[in-house]
């Protein structure tokens, strides 16, 4: 009887992991179709400059109780990271976001990082996560995942957490990934967009 329960638990865990990672049989994110994305190694998708779509307005209350409107960040490259304190891959990539955001800020680069905290039942969990990992940039508090639903179809899979989207200086979606990233992958998403004229 115990073996049967263990197998069932294992099957449920594997199915849940596949659902949350939103990967297909090739290990490539499949989340949603469309959007003129070209997916490269590591599951990072990019869009050529002339084919990009506008990012939606993301606004509301932040984890620390302030307000934020991402449309006010036009003119900067914006890195959006969807995360939850309950999410193990989010914890795995958080140190890279903390490091890269700090280094780019210290170097005076025109980049703004914004988190979208989702499915956390309390701001306290989100605040503790940010403190534990040294996240100093703001995160919109989105417990119901409503902000993710503002993205155009084919852009962001609400089930793929963590996800990262990079906006160009005109507020258009330039790159995305629907899986956790390391420092090198994160920089490979930001640097080309930052170098654009």
Q: In words, what does this structure look like?
A:
- This protein starts with a helix and ends with a helix.
- Strands 1-2-9-8-5-6-7 form a seven-stranded mixed sheet, with helices on one face.
- The chain has four helices and nine strands.
- A hairpin with a 5-residue loop joins β3 and β4 (67-69).
- The longest helix has 20 residues, at 2-21.
- With 197 residues, it is α+β, with helices and mostly antiparallel strands.
Strand order of the largest sheet: 1-2-9-8-5-6-7
Mean pLDDT: 84
What class, by secondary structure content? alpha+beta
Described by strand count, sense and barrel closure, the largest sheet is: 7 strands, mixed
Low confidence ranges: 1-34
Strand content: 15-25%
Q: How far is the N terminus from the C terminus? A: 64 Å
Q: What is the number of helices?
A: 4
């Amino acid at each position: 009887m115990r073996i049967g329960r263990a197998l069932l638990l294992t099957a449920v865990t594997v199915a849940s992991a596949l659902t949350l990672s939103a990967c297909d049989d090739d290990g490539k994110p499949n989340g949603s179709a469309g959007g003129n994305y070209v997916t490269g190694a590591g599951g990072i998708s990019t869009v050529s400059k002339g084919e990009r779509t506008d990012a939606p307005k993301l606004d509301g209350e932040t984890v620390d109780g302030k307000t934020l409107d991402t449309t006010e960040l036009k003119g900067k490259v914006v890195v959006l990271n969807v995360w939850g304190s309950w999410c193990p891959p989010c914890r795995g990539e958080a140190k890279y976001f903390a490091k890269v955001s700090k280094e780019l800020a210290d170097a005076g680069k025109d980049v703004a990082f914004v988190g979208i905290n989702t499915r956390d039942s309390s701001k306290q969990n989100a605040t503790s996560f940010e403190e534990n990992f040294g996240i100093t940039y703001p995160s919109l508090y989105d417990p119901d995942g409503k902000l993710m639903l503002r993205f155009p179809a084919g852009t962001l899979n609400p089930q793929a957490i963590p996800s990262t989207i990079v906006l160009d200086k005109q507020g258009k979606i330039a790159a995305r990934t629907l899986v956790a990233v390391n420092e090198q992958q994160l920089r490979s998403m930001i640097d080309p967009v930052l170098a654009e004229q």
